[in-house]
Amino acid sequence: MITFVGAGPGAEDLITVRGQELLKRADIVIYAGSLVNPGLLRVCPEGCEIYNSAKMTLEEVIDVMRDGQARGKEIVRLHTGDPCLYGAIREQMDLLDKEGIPWEDCPGVSSFCGAAAALGAEYTLPGISQSVVITRMAGRTPVPEKESIASFAAHQATMVIFLSTGMLKELSRELIRGGYAPDTPAAIVYKATWSDEKVLRCTVETLEETARAEHVTKTALIIAGRVLDGDYERSKLYDPGFTTEFREAVPGKTEDPGKE
Fold first, then answer.
1. How high is the pLDDT of residue 260?
2. Are 208 and 172 in contact (CB under 8 A)?
């Protein structure tokens, strides 16, 4: 069996219990060495075969999986964060399906969750934003025109931008072109949850100079939106005047007729 495992955002203790148990039983681990904390591999059993996929092609990864499966080995494919985001897992799963090799997927904690924790932020504040756009700048991997940064910025939702730290000047320009005011709060979170994590608060307009001052050039997430400042509405769910399925409104309070 091949199991795709989300390694979490970085800290060794933020992998899921299931993911760690799979590592403890693994005969072969193929891990994304450019992003996954190598400390996670300490729980692997003695004699476990370790491969760094940063130095491998897709075909070489599949060769290791095919050979391990033929030898009856338990194989873990360890991806950063949750592999459903920018993990390039679909192409691996499709090739395994073609060869009749069984696989499972063990989800993990995405780095965008780790970034929110580092910022003490809630991405979905009432009255500010109830949506989160997870996207990236176009680079060597293209982005469809209908998913451009500017087109998403027009919605004024919270934006979490992956894989774009080397293009911050262009990112600022596109965010502003799409509708964000230059002084919109923003943040750069470098290696969220790692021991060398950095949290840099700035504005949409000052992303590049902020990163340059702190020598951040990669392995960072960019967050933009008014959820990063202090103004928002109180949640209706815990409002004493709001009736829910589990609690009646407190008498004398203004009651919202809706339910949640």
1. 43
2. yes
